[in-house]
Design brief:
Blueprint (H helix, E strand, L loop, with lengths): L2 H10 L8 H4 L24 E6 L6 H8 L9 E6 L3 H10 L4 E5 H8 L9 E6 L5 E6 H5 L5 H9 L7 E4 L5 H12 L9 E4 L5 H6 L5 E5 L2 H7 L3 E6 H4 L6 E6 H6 L1 H19 L2 H11 L9 H8 L2 E3 L5 E3 L17 H13 L9 H8 L2 H11 L12 E2 L5 E2 L4 H5 L7
Parallel strand pairs: 1-2, 1-3, 6-7, 6-8
Antiparallel strand pairs: 3-10, 4-10, 5-8, 5-9, 11-12, 13-14
Organism: Kosakonia cowanii JCM 10956 = DSM 18146
InterPro entries: NrtA/CpmA_ABC-bd_dom, TAT_signal, TAT_signal_bac_arc
Subcellular location: Endomembrane system
């Protein structure tokens, strides 16, 4: 950063950030003036420069655009997006403190809290970064064998020796593992007994399928669309077909970091929340975002690979095209961004289902420890004009017809015929 940049950040860091200040320093909240007066005393961010990790995926967009569009400067911070090679790297750098926060898998954060994603650590979810926008890709070799969906895949697998087919996901306790397992199980395929299961970092999925290391994978965009464009695979299912408007990546960090940097955490949440709203405001903003994140510093792929599905324009590689009603969303009047307790609890139910958790946790207590809804509300107030739900639970119907509303997680976790 240049001396001029330092001076700019120094000036901007004095801008008053009042959200939640009554709780943190007794300052008066003045509606409409959150970003127009100077930061002072206990309201000032404890850290001015924040390293925020991300993986090269379309849903890193809110973190990247918060920095590129300088939403961070409004809240007295500078976000430095840090490109990481794998989710394991994101985890390790979060725990070591090399990263202040990260674009991270929802299930990884919960897994760390319970010691099944790595060393046990108290964690924090500041906000949800996106809904939808992942997919399950199958190889063209399976297409040649007559596979187009879960039912036809089951027939091919049943007619083959056990372990013939390998499927990849991106992290054992993460979102892509859960979408893959849920989809396979819904088709009557045991994701552990009937197929082999491996972990591959998102940017390496396409090349590994190309050289024959796996027959299918679940990953975020743009790598599913890239598989179609490269002529090696097709989209068998989108994640929003599994669960419309499902939670996906979150802005995550450790609980210790939030305790030491409460004002900075609130400022970071506000900046990323404002970026999320900006992205969703228009197709023009989405196109600008696609062009920005396609650059070498971020995803490093052609704009066309990102833009179509970001705008909801889908093709499956089998001849079907459609406008997806549940394409990747970043804001949706705050419904995306709010850290719903029921969203976090769902991942715990699946970690229990698949044997990552050996016993049932106190589902609600864990979610309340991790999801920082009060801090989110303070950030939303600072940004202004953002609806905050009155309930911390929401209801959804998944691909198998099961309704998830967070009301009885133990019964839900035990309700599946295929499990470990």
């Amino acid at each position: 950063m240049t001396q001029d940049d330092d001076n700019t950040v120094s000036k901007l860091s004095r801008r008053r950030f009042l959200a939640g200040s009554a709780a943190l320093g007794g300052s008066l909240l003045i509606p409409g003036l959150m970003n127009s007066v100077w930061a002072a005393g206990s309201d000032a961010p404890e850290k001015k420069t924040l390293r925020v990790g991300f993986i090269p995926l379309t849903d890193c967009a809110p973190v990247v655009m918060a920095a590129v569009k300088k939403f961070d400067e409004k809240y007295g911070i500078t976000i430095i997006p840090s490109k990481e090679s794998s989710w394991a790297s994101v985890r390790d750098k979060l725990l070591s403190g090399e990263l202040d926060a990260a674009h991270v898998l929802y299930g990884m954060v919960y897994g760390l809290q319970l010691g099944v994603s790595g060393p046990q650590r108290e964690m924090a979810v500041l906000m949800t970064l996106n809904n939808n926008g992942q997919a399950i890709t199958l190889s063209n070799q399976l297409k040649a064998a007559g596979v187009t969906d879960g039912a036809s895949l089951k027939k091919v697998i049943a007619a083959s020796p056990q372990g013939t087919y390998t499927f990849a996901q991106t992290f054992p306790s993460g979102t892509h593992a859960m979408w893959l397992y849920y989809w396979l199980a819904n088709a009557g395929i045991d994701p552990f007994a009937d197929v082999r299961n491996v972990v591959v970092p998102p940017p390496q999925m396409v090349v590994n399928m190309k050289i024959g290391n796996m027959s299918g994978f679940c990953v975020g965009e743009p790598w599913n669309q890239r598989a179609i464009l490269d002529g090696i695979g097709f989209t068998a299912a989108t994640s929003q077909q599994i669960w419309p408007d499902h939670p996906e990546k979150v802005l995550g960090t450790t609980s210790a970091w939030v305790s030491a940097n409460g004002n900075a955490a609130r400022a970071l949440t506000a900046a990323v929340l404002e970026a999320s709203r900006w992205i969703d405001a228009s197709d023009e903003n989405r196109r600008e975002t696609a062009k920005t994140i396609a650059a070498r510093a971020y995803i490093n792929t052609a704009v066309e690979t990102i833009e179509g599905r970001m705008l909801g324009h889908y093709e499956d590689g089998l001849g079907k095209t459609w406008q997806d009603a549940h394409a990747m969303r970043f804001f949706n009047d705050g419904a995306v961004s709010y850290p719903w307790l029921s969203d976090g609890i769902w991942f715990l139910t699946q970690q229990k289902r698949w044997g990552l958790l050996k016993s049932a946790p106190d589902y609600l207590a864990v979610a309340r420890q991790i999801n920082r809804s009060e801090l989110y509300k303070q950030a939303a107030t600072a940004v202004g004009g953002i609806s905050v739900p009155t309930s911390q639970m929401r209801s959804s119907t998944l691909i198998d017809g099961k309704v998830w509303d967070g009301s009885d997680p133990a019964a839900y976790a035990n309700s599946f015929a295929i499990h470990r």
